[in-house]
Amino acid sequence: MRNTKHKLFKDKRLRHLHDELNIIGVVRNHFLAVCMRYYRRYGKGVSYRKMSFHLTKLKKLEKYQHWNIPYAWALQNMLKRLAQSFREMKTLGRGHPQFKPCKKHKGMTFDSTQAPLEKVLDKQKHKRNHPTYKIRLNGRWYRFALHRRIEGEITQVQVTRDALGDVYITLTEDYSEVKYEPKTGKAEGFDFGIKDFLTGSDGERYGSPMFYTQNADKLAKAQKAHSRKVKGSHNRERERKNVARIHKKTANQRADHHWKLAIDLCRQFDILFFEDLNLNGMKHLWGKHVSDLAFGEFLEKLKHQARKRIRSVLKINRWSPTSKCCSVCQHKNEILTLAVRQWQCPKCHTHLDRDQNAAMNILKEGIASFGLGVVRPIVLFNQIVGVTVEANSPLLNSTNASA
Ligand SMILES: [Zn+2]
Prior knowledge:
Elements: E1 2-7, H1 14-42, H2 48-59, H3 72-91, E2 107-111, E3 117-119, E4 132-137, E5 140-145, E6 154-161, E7 167-173, E8 187-192, E9 198-200, E10 205-206, H4 211-214, H5 216-228, H6 234-268, E11 271-275, H7 279-286, H8 288-293, H9 295-308, E12 312-316, E13 342-344, E14 351-353, H10 354-369, E15 373-380, E16 383-391
Helix pairs in contact: 1-3, 5-6, 6-9
The chain binds zinc ion (ZN).
């Protein structure tokens, strides 16, 4: 499965898509209220079948005539998601879905047979970078630039919009992309941190620009301007878009940095070990810096690239002590606090860097627990200068299993 996201060209016609999304938002709120009432009385959500039956009845009434405007399949898909989120309340222990203003409803799904694509012949003289295509959504054609070739069969089309009023389509294909990279025969453990985004067990540090902090001044200025404008005015709407634009830019910068780093790491190493993070606990400790760095999002991107390039991303047990143990002699230093960045092992007198020591322990633990061999740190003049991996597994040298 591969997803590619394309932006629809700005057009007056887009207002039809916005209208449909608004209506779907209204219907969602209606059924959410129904579900909540039902849940309070019977302790479970309404099933999709019942909701769908009810919707068909409502659509025939004069009062709800406009509910016939959006594509019916998209409405049903929304109901399916709603029913699922009520089911997940129990199984995953989540809170109930929230009411949203209909203008904030973001997406709808189309069946691939209901959203045919066609190539548009460009009449313009200058050549465009990407071919222009058009897609038929609910009876109207919308144009966009196809920036990735379609390789497989399209199974689903998702229409989404953002706070700026831009509309995107996400094409889902039944095609898995594989990029062969030469094997490097290297494994590496990584420790996440606030000061350095990642520290490798070989001592390499990968920093992260704090994008949210970088744009904080601009954002504060825009938010101030926004709050000063009269509610409901055109000026306020313009300033709202300004704020949304800064948020979008921050997110884009972060995503771009994450992708580049993920690809870089996948090129360097065959197996990458990480600690299983307790993100909520970290947020508690360090606040919004954790959200700015977005470790979880980075790991998702890294896993995607690893799958594509046939590399392994493996997680070690959360409860194994990684920072307090000396990676050379396994001595456990109980008095080590968070503030100490460098320390000397009282037993073997090795000079240890906190992050690198943790990364080394993650590598050791990972290699041992996945049965890949033994890691020995090379110590010279009381400093760790490298590692040797005595591999007893074919994993390091030839093929890889994906996590
Ligand atoms: Zn030691």
